[in-house]
Amino acid sequence: MPVIAVDSSAHIHVAWYDNTPGNLEIYYKRSEDDGSTWSSSQRLTWTGGGSRYISLAIDSGNALHMAWYDDTPGASEIYYKRSTDGGSTWSAAQRLTWTSDTSSTPVLAIESNNALHLIWRDNTPGNWEIYYKKGT
Q1: Which domains, from first to last, does the chain contain?
Q2: What is the pLDDT of residues 67-111, one digit of tens each?
């Protein structure tokens, strides 16, 4: 389940989740030459559960924004991190949801003023509903 985004410098950014360590974790790499060469794979999550279903978006300043869900706390919750240096380093993961049931399948969008918009599905009320959160 890879995701791809291209910044204003035509750098290609790819993230995916992989079961190589024995549970699902998120990895990232980039290419700065139209895909001819790629950076080494960088592991972005280190959890006891499964991290999966990534959304990747890039703002007008080329900061990368990533959301995914992880079931480490028991029920799946939405997490977020960003990189302001082209993917070389990433912020610590920030938990965005605190629900009693499953929050999953996040999708990020960024508007021209760099405001973040996040939607996801959640089963907390006992049936699947779509939720929305706006950030800056």
Answers
A1: 3-135 (2.120.10.10)
A2: 999 998 688 999 999 999 999 999 999 999 998 899 999 999 999
Instruction: Determine the Cα–Cα distance for residues 68 and 18; give it in Å rounded to an integer.
Output: 13
User: Model pTM?
Assistant: 0.94
Cβ-based neighbour number of residue 18 at 10 Å: 16
Angle at 89 between CA 85 and CA 90, to 5 degrees: 105
Cα–Cα dist 91/45, whole Å: 11
Would you place residue 136 in the very low, low, confident or very high pLDDT band (cuts 50, 70, 90)?
A: low
H-run or E-run covering 55: strand 51-58
Buried-exposed string 56-77: b where 16+ CB fall within 10 A, e elsewhere: bbbbeebbbbbbbbbbbeebbb
Provide the mean pLDDT of the chain: 95
